[in-house]
Specification:
- With 334 residues, the protein is α/β, with parallel strands linked by helices.
- 32% of the residues lie in helices and 26% in strands.
- Strand 15, helix 11 and strand 16 form a beta-alpha-beta unit.
- Helix 3 packs across helix 4.
- The radius of gyration is 19 Å and the shape is globular.
Length: 334
């Protein structure tokens, strides 16, 4: 089969389009013929080698985390899916490889694709949908009438998280450029701040939850300031916390390094009587099944910016690296 491969960790080298061995199908796995694959910043981070300390992939390997496609074969112990089912997933860490014609996925990571959207739209959902769900529902336990600040509202995670938070019943504030005001308002944002002109920390106060996605340390500090006592900042960009290191089962020296990296953020949060948490989302088919229901009922709509042909996967990665995508970018494989 054809696939896009990381030959070696590099910030400058592109993925290599090449012939690759067909996936191995274990007894609990489902072989998916890939129709589309969402393109994520995480794919760039993996290619660059920024996560190789705690996600040590051994090059060469196929890149890509999001998939939508059709079941081509099932393992002997698979009970939830059958050949011909339309499915989607954010595949598990250490089993990535969706920039390919086929991928083997554990059935626990899969869900049936929403019937009312295209394969391209379905390929855009899993990573951003699960990130939003795990941040807002699982970690923050967002409730009706709470105040939630979602940074970068027109981006992939932001455009999904706004819709999910509004469905729960929260008041949602977000940041974006003036060009994207109408988009984020159409998704349900109650208060929109032009990050190029205004400082959100002078506008927002007494918020219950911040979904933090900006690596600038100053933005992190300002985000902690707008929380009410007992409020929660869920960070998607770090610094990672000791809880994250323990969950990954990292060796003691990496746990120590991560503890040092996040010590300043955790101290600042403690001083303000707020909570700092780091989320590195995980594959989760059951949660994706809940997201399917929300999409099929019309509560959440995919926000798709561009669809690239499979051969232009590197161009798709370059496009999202600009930070200008509105919603999600996808490659069409079949």
């Amino acid at each position: 089969m054809k696939a896009f491969v990381v030959e070696r960790y590099s910030k400058t080298e592109q993925l290599h389009f090449t012939d690759w061995a067909d996936p191995i199908l274990n007894e609990n796995d489902v072989l998916v013929q890939v129709h589309s694959a969402g393109v994520n910043t995480l794919d760039i981070i993996i290619k660059n080698g920024e996560f190789k300390l705690f996600l040590p992939y051994k090059p060469p390997f196929v890149n890509g985390h999001d998939v939508a496609g059709v079941v081509a074969k099932v393992g002997t112990k698979v009970s939830q899916f059958k050949i011909g089912d339309e499915v989607y997933a954010r595949v598990s860490d250490h089993k990535i490889g969706t920039f390919a014609e086929y991928i083997s996925v554990n059935e626990q990571d899969l869900a049936l694709k929403p019937k009312n959207i295209s394969m391209e739209e379905a390929g855009s959902i899993p990573l951003v949908g699960l990130t939003s769900w795990q941040a807002l529902v699982e970690m923050a336990h967002v409730k009706k009438d709470q105040k939630v600040f979602i940074q970068a509202g027109s981006g992939g995670v932001g455009s999904f998280a706004i819709q999910l938070a509004k469905h729960i019943g929260a008041f949602v504030a977000t940041t974006t450029s003036a060009a994207n005001f109408e988009l984020v308002k159409s998704l349900g944002a109650d208060l929109v701040i032009d990050y190029k002109k205004d400082d959100f920390s002078t506008v927002l106060k007494e918020f219950d939850v911040v979904l933090h996605s900006n690596k600038d340390p100053k933005i992190l500090e300002k985000s902690l300031r707008i929380l009410k006592p007992g409020g929660q900042l869920i960070s998607l960009v770090g610094p990672p916390t000791p809880e994250f290191a323990s969950a990954l089962g990292l060796p003691w020296f990496l746990k120590f390094v991560i503890k040092l990296l996040s010590s300043s953020a955790r101290k600042k949060a403690k001083k303000r009587n707020v909570n700092f948490k780091f989320l590195f989302m995980r594959a989760e088919g059951n949660q994706l099944g809940e997201i399917t229901k929300l999409i099929e009922s019309g509560v959440i709509k995919p926000v798709l910016d561009k669809v690239f042909p499979f051969e232009q996967t590197n161009e798709a990665l370059a496009y999202i690296a600009t930070g200008r995508a509105k919603g999600k970018v996808v490659v069409r494989i079949k």
